């Protein structure tokens, strides 16, 4: 079964120019994601949040500057940096359990062990009775939970999340946010969570990075929704919104 | 169950009506603008069919035609899927093979009979070649389109899990393109029959097409119709086999109620509504 938890990755951008060749979206970005933290990245639509995440995942090469993990340049996708997509990225011909087993199968984990680990992760996201179903037989919120289980099953050192709850209704979304905090606890993984929702960013993030400037703010703790009515958080929220409005 | 019985009854009725009209037109030698006086009646054809079923030659023809079509179609399936995938996934393969394939594609497979005669040492191989060529293009083109239309996020997901080229091919490309590939196979098996029969008529030794043409040259019209009925039945059986295989392999596809074969364990409301529960989520709350 699961072994010792690997430490989270340090992800760093120095003067990074990101985007597609000839069409940079972010220019001269500096960012340091500390091992084990949840960094929420917030910004208006089209500001380059997904580009940042895809670059960190290794799907999109940086056009300039440095993008590194623990000091090594990120040049290609690696299993230690799991990506959770906004779109439904489950393979529709595989059952829920087989989807969660896939990264383990790629890593060569024996069949019995990967099945046990997949079932354990499905139980952690509350879907232990849905393992034999095909993805189209479960709801959108449940599919996002399967994506989360699939990303975490292979014990990645960094989890990159691209507005994974963007298409969910408010109640399901609130449930998913709490679930995410619960399941990440103890994994030690570094998390970069992209969202356009300031409240989501303040609830999930240990720190919040604002795009396109790259400015980073600390978020007060404990992480409770009630705390978001306290004056410090309200002031922070106002500051984030003003900052985003002024850069848009 | 009742709807299915009604559907079967309708199909039987349609077939019986067509045979009834045929019998009436031919037994009364109807001779309007269309001439039915030379046509054999349904009973003539049925009698000839019965006689043929008792002869060894009929079964040899059947076996020969089936062997040719299965061989040609299997080769076309393997080649069509391989080339279609390569062309869709590789710029080099597309540049190398694309122009040649696009020039050959519009040439009807049956027009390749002279080429087959020149190329192959035996007629048998030439007929298989023509059958294979006929099915190859629908399979190749469908595969190419299906692979190009794959959702990119599936491949990206496997890439970020550490999957390599072969893993992506086996876990994403082929299963994801399967519905499109099966469409090509379905068209391909139909075209294969047209071409195998035509090729047998032109250059065959034995085979249903060869026998049908022989019957025509000796003015055995009931024999011609026995050949046509045999071709129709074989075509229907093989295309049904491809269709059933396709349904079995793509059971994961969401289907509307009308397009799904009846099943006693089918869920009436398969899609579970989104879990409306606030934090924390529990097993009970997400259970449908």
TrEMBL record, chain A:
<dbReference type="InterPro" id="IPR003593">
    <property type="entry name" value="AAA+_ATPase"/>
</dbReference>
<keyword id="KW-0813">Transport</keyword>
<keyword id="KW-1003">Cell membrane</keyword>
<keyword id="KW-0067">ATP-binding</keyword>
<keyword id="KW-0547">Nucleotide-binding</keyword>
<dbReference type="InterPro" id="IPR003439">
    <property type="entry name" value="ABC_transporter-like_ATP-bd"/>
</dbReference>
<keyword id="KW-1278">Translocase</keyword>
<dbReference type="GO" id="GO:0005524">
    <property type="term" value="F:ATP binding"/>
</dbReference>
<protein>
    <submittedName>
        <fullName>ABC transporter ATP-binding protein</fullName>
    </submittedName>
</protein>
<keyword id="KW-0472">Membrane</keyword>
<dbReference type="InterPro" id="IPR050166">
    <property type="entry name" value="ABC_transporter_ATP-bind"/>
</dbReference>
<keyword id="KW-0997">Cell inner membrane</keyword>
<dbReference type="Pfam" id="PF00005">
    <property type="entry name" value="ABC_tran"/>
</dbReference>
<feature type="domain" description="ABC transporter">
    <location>
        <begin position="11"/>
        <end position="238"/>
    </location>
</feature>
<dbReference type="InterPro" id="IPR017871">
    <property type="entry name" value="ABC_transporter-like_CS"/>
</dbReference>
<dbReference type="InterPro" id="IPR027417">
    <property type="entry name" value="P-loop_NTPase"/>
</dbReference>
From TrEMBL, chain B:
<dbReference type="InterPro" id="IPR000515">
    <property type="entry name" value="MetI-like"/>
</dbReference>
<dbReference type="InterPro" id="IPR035906">
    <property type="entry name" value="MetI-like_sf"/>
</dbReference>
<feature type="transmembrane region" description="Helical">
    <location>
        <begin position="126"/>
        <end position="147"/>
    </location>
</feature>
<protein>
    <submittedName>
        <fullName>ABC transporter permease</fullName>
    </submittedName>
</protein>
<feature type="transmembrane region" description="Helical">
    <location>
        <begin position="221"/>
        <end position="245"/>
    </location>
</feature>
<feature type="region of interest" description="Disordered">
    <location>
        <begin position="256"/>
        <end position="288"/>
    </location>
</feature>
<keyword id="KW-0812">Transmembrane</keyword>
<keyword id="KW-1133">Transmembrane helix</keyword>
<keyword id="KW-0472">Membrane</keyword>
<keyword id="KW-0813">Transport</keyword>
<feature type="transmembrane region" description="Helical">
    <location>
        <begin position="100"/>
        <end position="120"/>
    </location>
</feature>
<keyword id="KW-1003">Cell membrane</keyword>
<comment type="similarity">
    <text>Belongs to the binding-protein-dependent transport system permease family.</text>
</comment>
<dbReference type="Pfam" id="PF00528">
    <property type="entry name" value="BPD_transp_1"/>
</dbReference>
<feature type="domain" description="ABC transmembrane type-1">
    <location>
        <begin position="62"/>
        <end position="246"/>
    </location>
</feature>
<feature type="transmembrane region" description="Helical">
    <location>
        <begin position="168"/>
        <end position="201"/>
    </location>
</feature>
<feature type="transmembrane region" description="Helical">
    <location>
        <begin position="69"/>
        <end position="88"/>
    </location>
</feature>
């Amino acid at each position: 079964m699961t072994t010792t938890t690997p430490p989270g990755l340090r992800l760093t951008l120095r003067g990074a120019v990101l985007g597609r060749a000839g069409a940079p979206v972010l220019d001269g970005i500096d960012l340091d994601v500390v091992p084990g933290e949840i960094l929420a990245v917030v910004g208006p639509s089209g500001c380059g949040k997904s580009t940042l995440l895809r670059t960190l995942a290794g799907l999109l090469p940086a056009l300039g500057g440095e993008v590194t993990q623990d000091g090594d340049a990120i040049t290609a996708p690696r299993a230690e940096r799991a990506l959770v997509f906004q779109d439904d990225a489950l393979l529709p011909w595989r059952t829920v359990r087989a989807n969660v087993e896939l990264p383990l199968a790629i890593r060569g984990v024996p069949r019995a062990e990967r099945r046990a680990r997949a079932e354990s992760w499905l139980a952690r996201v509350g879907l232990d009775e849905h393992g034999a179903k095909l993805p189209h037989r479960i709801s959108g919120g449940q599919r996002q939970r399967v994506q989360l289980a699939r990303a975490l099953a292979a014990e990645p050192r960094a989890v990159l999340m691209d507005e994974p709850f963007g298409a969910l209704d408010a109640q399901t979304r609130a449930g998913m946010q709490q679930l995410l905090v619960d399941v990440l606890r103890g994994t030690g993984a570094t998390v970069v969570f992209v969202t356009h929702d300031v409240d989501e960013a303040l609830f999930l993030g240990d720190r919040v990075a604002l795009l396109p400037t790259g400015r980073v703010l600390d978020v007060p703790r404990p992480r409770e929704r009630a705390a978001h009515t306290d004056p410090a958080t309200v002031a922070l929220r106002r500051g984030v919104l003003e900052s985003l409005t002024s850069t848009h | 169950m009742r709807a299915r019985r009604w559907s079967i009854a309708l199909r039987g009725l349609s077939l019986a009506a067509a045979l009834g009209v045929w019998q009436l037109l031919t037994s009364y030698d109807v001779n309007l603008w269309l001439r039915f006086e030379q046509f054999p009646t349904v009973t003539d054809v049925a009698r000839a069919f019965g006689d043929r079923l008792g002869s060894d030659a009929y079964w040899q023809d059947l076996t020969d035609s089936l062997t040719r079509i299965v061989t040609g179609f299997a080769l076309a399936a393997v080649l069509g899927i391989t080339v279609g995938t390569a062309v869709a996934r590789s710029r080099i393969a597309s540049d190398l093979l694309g122009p040649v394939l696009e020039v050959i594609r519009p040439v009807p497979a049956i027009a390749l009979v002279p080429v087959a005669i020149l190329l192959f040492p035996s007629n048998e191989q030439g007929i298989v070649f023509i059958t294979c060529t006929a099915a190859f293009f629908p399979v190749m083109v469908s595969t190419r389109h299906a692979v190009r239309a794959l959702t990119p996020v599936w491949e990206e997901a496997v890439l970020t899990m550490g999957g390599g080229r072969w893993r992506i091919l086996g876990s994403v490309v082929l299963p994801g393109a399967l519905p499109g590939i099966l469409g090509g196979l379905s068209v391909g098996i139909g075209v294969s029959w047209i071409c195998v029969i035509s090729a047998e008529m032109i250059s065959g030794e034995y085979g249903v097409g060869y026998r049908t043409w022989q019957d025509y040259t000796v003015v055995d019209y009931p024999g011609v119709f026995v050949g046509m009925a045999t071709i129709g039945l074989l075509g229907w059986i093989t295309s049904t086999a491809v269709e059933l295989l396709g349904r079995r392999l793509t059971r994961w596809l969401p289907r509307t109620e009308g397009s799904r074969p009846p099943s006693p364990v089918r869920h009436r409301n398969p899609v579970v509504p989104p879990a409306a529960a606030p934090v924390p989520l529990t097993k009970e709350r997400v259970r449908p």
